[in-house]
Amino acid sequence: MNSEGILLLSKDRRVDVAAQLGYPDEYYFNRRFKQTVGVTPRQYVRNRKKPLMNYRQVRHGSH
User: What CATH number is associated with residue 54?
Assistant: First the structure.
């Protein structure tokens, strides 16, 4: 599984995900992730989860 998938599926902290993927520290992981994906890991997770929240709000009639 790639780093994007692990971030989305894991409830682990980013520092723990970085260690699982073999990065020496969270800061290096953040830099490499942003160079590869274009956004920070935090932004990636927030952006990917946002559409799911909006879908739930529409389904339940909340705005």
Answer: 1.10.10.60
Largest CA distance in the chain: 45
Backbone dihedral region for residue 52 (phi beyond 0: left; psi -120 to 50: alpha; all else: beta) = alpha
CA distances from residue 30 to 12, 20, 24, 38, 47 in whole angstroms, order as listed: 15, 14, 11, 11, 16
The pTM is what? 0.70
Domain span at 9: 3-60
Could you read off the pLDDT of 9-37 as tens digits, one per residue? 888 888 999 999 999 999 999 999 999 99
At residue 63 the predicted structure's pLDDT band, cuts being 50, 70 and 90, is low
Cβ atoms of residues 48 and 38 within 8 Å: no
